[in-house]
Structures are given as structure tokens and as C-alpha cells.
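Weekly modeling sync, notes
Attendees: S.R. (lead), two postdocs, one rotation student

Agenda item 3: backlog of single-chain predictions. S.R. asked that every request posted to the team notebook include the full sequence so nobody has to chase files. The rotation student volunteered to paste the first one in as an example of the format we agreed on. Action items at the bottom.

Example entry:
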Amino acid sequence: MPEIGPEGQRKLGGARVLVLGAGGLASAALYYLACAGVGMLGIADDDRIELSNLNRQILHNPQRIGTPKVFSAKDTIACFSPETLIVTYPRRVESVMEMLEMVRHFDAVIDCTDNFEARDLINQSCILARKPWVYGAVSGFEGQIMTIIPGRGPCYRCLYPSSPPSTSNSSAPGVIGVSAGFVGILQASEVIKHILGQGSLLVGRLLYADLLEMDFSELRVSMNPGCDYCGGHTEP
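Predicted structure, as returned to the notebook:
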């Protein structure tokens, strides 16, 4: 491929990507990052595999129910990409400083979490560390994705200035597996393009996908001059 070539493959082989979460989004993202030849992958998650996860979390299987997700994910990726260096973080991160200590070792971060609080920590730490990260979320047949590069475009708090109303587990919407797979693949694609310096990234562009209607739309997101996190400023 002219967009990659030997030099691009060397860039991918030298890249370090942290994936926060080891569920549905991460299942697709990790597979394709490893297949593309990314040299080092970090996987962070404190959860264990449950039967209800398996409709979308294709890193795991029924024989691993009860196993920490990060170890299952590592075993799966290592089976078909043994040359990939995989670092696991089987713990919950509850502070910006803890998150910062993780992200500073990587070139890019993929958000595969499922709540505002975790993304807020990712946003703050990536701004402090000047690391690009890719936000992704799914619900039912719908998904959304945006790439955040500190100093080049709006941050997550520019997109969502305040926390949305909390939703109890009993009333939370379900997710069809293909939605998680679709968004996870797009997240991996954004990171691969960033590493290669190719194509147009979703910076300042929230991509929304409705797979039930096969409808795609894009929302332009501006930097908020009053944002407490990024200050709404671009780098000179």
C-alpha cells in the first residue's frame, strides 16, 4: 500500500498504543491494531468476564468466564500476533495522576470505557501528557467517535461540558455486538492514520452512526474558549 510502505510499517512497529477497557470496543480495536503491526499494546481494565459480555466482546470465550478481561485479551492477541508486546493493567484508575502515569508511556490512547467519569479522567490526563486519544461510545445500533489531539482541536469537555444524567444498570440500553465492533474498528483506524501521518482525522468532528437505518452524520465541534481543561487554545 502506498500509504504505508516499509517506512510506515516501521512506524507502526515502533508505536505504543494504550487501550482503556477490554470489552466490546476494545475487542475490535485490539485485533486490528495488532494485525496492523503496532509494536506495543497496553490494555487496562479491572473487570472480569461474564456470560452477558460475549455477544460483543470477541476477545473472550465461555471457557474464560470469571477471568480478568485484561489477561484474556492478552492471551487472545498473543495467539495470532506473538511479536506484539502487550502490557496489562488489571486495576481501576480513580485519579488523574494514576491515569497520567499510564498514558505517558504511550503514543496514543483509545477510549473503550463506558462512562463519563472514566472519559473525563482520560481527557484530563491526555491533555496534561499532550497525548492524542480517540473517544468512542455505543448504544443499541448507534455509535459515535471523535479524535482528540491536545492543542489541535476541541477536547472531550468541549463536546460534553457536564456529566449526563446517571442511568441505572437496569435501565441502561443494550448494545448489539456489531455496533461495538464497528466503532472499535473506526477507533483503530484513527490511531493507525495518526501513527502513519495519513488521511483526515476526526479532530473537531463527531461522527455519528445509526446502523439500524444505515445513516451517518457528522457534527462539527468547536473549541470552547471557556473550557476548564483545554482552555480553547490551539498550539502556535
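Discussion: group reviewed the output briefly. The chain has one domain: 5-220.
Action items: rotation student to repeat for the remaining queue; S.R. to check formatting next week.
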